[in-house]
Amino acid sequence: MSEKVEKLKERIRQLERILEISRDLSSTLNFHPLLIKITRVAAELTNTEASSILLLDKSTGQLYFEAATGVTESALVGIPVPLEGSIAGWIVKEGKPLIIDDVDKDPRFYRHVDTLTSFRTRSILGVPLKVKDEVIGALEVLNKKGSQPFTEEDVEVLTTLAAQAAIAIENARLFQQSDLVAILAHELRTPLTSIIGYTRLLLTQADLNPALRRSFLETISHEASRLNSLINDFLDLIRLESGRVRLSKKLVHLRHLIEEAVATVRPQAEARRIKIKIQIPRNLPPIMADERRLMQVLLNLLSNAIKYNKDEGLVEVKATLKDRAVEVSVRDTGIGIEPEELPHIFEKFYRGSSEQNAFGTGLGLAIAKQITEAHGGTITVESTPGQGSTFTVTLPLQSGM
Ligand code: ADP
């Protein structure tokens, strides 16, 4: 009995450690340091002599050592390992963990690697690194200390760690992806250029009249806010895309939420004499959702419906019960969206071609889509150019429960 209790205590300690680690991992966006952290923790949690990470390069169809603990690191990194005839290859192809207590007896062991380092492998436990259902590589630990065999607990602990590690690796990769970084840099440059330009003017032109001065300062302040929302939205979107955001769901009454969202955007609407109508049936049941995140979706759709509306236009928010789902639609009488633009508007950084689009971030709808889908829902759009658009969010009553 007491042995059982001890084991349980040990297990809880490990789980707490994994939780602590995954928090740490998710804040590391630097690729190589992240991998090193993962291998160190893997060896620590499984009480083994060494650990390594191999990632799959889709273009060559081979695995490459990306990181390893200890002295073997510099000798290993960059070494290719074939998918066929290697333990890591088996793990990646099968998408399953594998224990090998004596590598000398297993034909899958790729001996070549040990000959390159002074390390002598005796036993291996490896688990796949999976992002959603795709295997991106393998995490291995070598030689359990005290010449013990690997246990089921080791498999479980390493699998849990690998799940967190894979997400962190994908995130770090996303940040590495030069095109995305290039787009972001480009997007950041526009407001920055304007801020630099106007500040220089203010600094060098001593005799500017007060009205002009004020208008320059207003532009600077506006562009700085834009820079701020670009960065916040971008980080938010990246976190959502990686699946790293945990929804905190509870029963949400859509009526309250919609009314609150409308109250928030009303000043924006009134400034252009745009009317907002709400239509929600009395008996609409509450839904299981993350209130703060859902608010983000509503605010985004509503502010777009105002931003892309005509002066004195109309915005209608409707909620209806459909089968086991609730449909929330936001209709506007604005400029509408050209048919060739429709398929792209949920893409990140996509901004429509009309002049009214110039000031957005192009991230709002991408974020709204990610949040809706994280709830097990969908978001769609219908539009007639020159007449208006309708965005419809469908959320299951028991979303993702
Ligand atoms: P932003 O509004 O910051 O540009 P969004 O992701 O919210 O970014 O929207 C992307 C694009 O979709 C907009 O630039 C605009 O072209 C189009 N769009 C979104 N909502 C509407 C709407 N209600 N009416 C017309 N066009 C819209």
Task: Write a concise keyword list for the protein shown above.
binds adenosine-5'-diphosphate, five-stranded mixed beta sheet, 401 residues, Beta-Lactamase, alpha+beta, six-stranded antiparallel beta sheet, 13 strands, 2 domains, Heat Shock Protein 90
CATH class of the largest domain: Alpha Beta
Biggest beta sheet summary: 6 strands, antiparallel
Q: Bound small molecules, which ones?
A: adenosine-5'-diphosphate
CATH topology annotation of the largest domain: Beta-Lactamase
Overall shape: it is elongated
Query: What's the count of strands?
Result: 13
Q: H/E series, N to C?
A: HHEEHEHEHEEHHHEHEEHEEHEE
**Name of the CATH superfamily of the largest domain:** GAF domain
Quaternary structure classification: single chain
Strand residue content: 15-25%
- How do the strands line up in the largest sheet? 3-2-1-6-5-4
Count the DSSP helices: 11
Structural class label: alpha+beta
Commentary on this structure:
The protein is of the alpha+beta class and 401 residues long. It has 2 domains: 2-171, GAF domain (Beta-Lactamase, 2-Layer Sandwich); 247-401, Heat Shock Protein 90 (2-Layer Sandwich), CATH 3.30.565.10. It has helices at residues 2-26, 31-46, 73-76, 87-94, 112-116, 152-176, 178-204, 210-241, 254-270, 291-307, 364-374, and strands at 48-57, 62-68, 80-81, 98-100, 124-131, 134-144, 250-252, 275-279, 287-289, 314-322, 325-332, 378-384, 388-396. The strands form 3 sheets. Strands 3-2-1-6-5-4 form a 6-stranded antiparallel β-sheet, sandwiched between helices. The radius of gyration is 27 Å and the shape is elongated. It starts with a helix and ends in a 5-residue tail after the last strand. Bound molecules: adenosine-5'-diphosphate (ADP).
